[in-house]
Input
Amino acid sequence: MVEGDSNKNSSNSYNVESGLQPTNYNQTTNPVDNRSIIQPYGLGTDSKDLGYHINDAYEVDKNDLEKNGGRSAAGGIKAGFEQAIEMCGYGKFHYILLAICGLVSTSEEMDVISMSFILPSAQCDLNLNTETKGWLNSIIFIGMMVGAYFWGSIADSMGRKKVLIVISFMNGFCIVASSFSQTYEWFMLFRFLNGAALGGSGPVIWSYFAEFQPKSKRGSMLSFMAAFWTFGNLFVAGLAWLIIPTGIGFVTPLFTYNSWRIFLMVCSLPSFVVAFLLFYLPESPKFLLSKGKQDKAMAIFRGIFVTNTKKAPELYPVTELDIDEKLMAEIQEARESVKGKYSKMLSGMVDHSKQLFTSPILKFTLVSIIINFTFHIGYYGLMMWFPELFNRFEEYSTDFPGQTAGVCTVTEYVVGKTNHEDAVCSSHIPSAVFMESLISLASALPANLIAILGMDLLGRKFFLIFGTMTAGVCSAAMYFVFNSTQNLIVTAVFSGAISAANAALDCLITEVFPTHLRATGVAISMVAARMGGIIGNIVIATLLDQYCPAPTFIVAVLLMGGGLMCLLLPNTTRKELN
Output
């Protein structure tokens, strides 16, 4: 994995946040000498704190060290946070960080979008109609709305990494429990708890990842991480295609565990994997600085430097951090906060919320809430229903081969057929539905690639406005679709455009809030996003069956209007974080 140091005595224990930080470390006599970052946890013999084990595979360029007399090549520089992270270099650590944080995003998107593939299969087991399907799609967003604020506030008070580990385990266990649920009510309960866990991973993982990135790379790397959502979509669509149509599992009079439940179980595995992988990452140095833990932040900078360059930590040119006025104010606030662990956490949650709704941050908070709300009505309101729409077109074309019909005609026929008193429930889904879903989701890959390459060149606002405008046009165009091929083309363009816009939105909202409010600010924005997902699913489910033309045009207007709201936010492209 990452290089370590064999110089330390194995009996020492080390601090969780900083990596190699001896518990008997004395600030005045021993400099913090962190030589490894991504190492597994272990228990020290003389401390209750968990710490990092040391990897003996550490390699030091001894010639460089001897030439400089064991001192920094630069003779010691006092640098701000941005300069300190730039001098760590960019390499192995950041790519491992991207892989692990990206997998967190992948598992999150898999859990959200998996419901859209489950609904057609579970309708007989759980006795579902269009209304109850809408609520099943929405319940995870209700949970995410509750969890986003709660976990985001805790992350700003207690740390990003600890929160991410807890919610990853919680997420995995809730998915497993939902796969064993035999009734609609129990399934709803565990999907709600699943959402409560997922609500924390979104705002926290974006804050955590962004705080390791130098400003020159932040836009492209955040866009790269946004691409992992697309990987999650593709992975879950592929798994659904492989597992659900097979009919594997068993059915007894008392207990049923069929293919869609096995599919859910498999979808839980990434959550458990990332929970263990997160143990190998350090706490955010930006967060540690905001809490006044400068020595631990310096230890992490040295560790990143060693991991990226394979040079000795003594060659890291920064010896002192230059704390600007904003960060100093955050440090002072942290020092003056309540001493008790839980009272400090609660007071931090309240105080962070107050600051977000106080000038000058108030404007950013309100605009980000509006953008996220309108954007996610379209993003989840339509995306979650695409497999259902594909299934309805396939059912209509099977019953009326060679005939064409619009989305409203198809919906009216399928709903009427399902509600007929002599109708027999069928959970069979044609393979074409999974193939079309996979194609439409795969169209996001080239869009994400363009966003990665152009985010720091063209800017966040360009991609957000262009993406929402294109997606809005596609939403309106769905009313004029008359066969499954046209439906596939429109949904594919919609998927690509909104994915590029989503990458830009994630960058912009993550960067616009100051460090000590970032996770809470992103969390509140995510609450608005989940509210949009809830309303989008429930309203679209109702309107699609009763007032068919309405939802596509409503979504079009909301996407276009919300995208233009970003013009009220500051330009964060290639700017310092904070």
Notes: The longest helix spans residues 515-546.
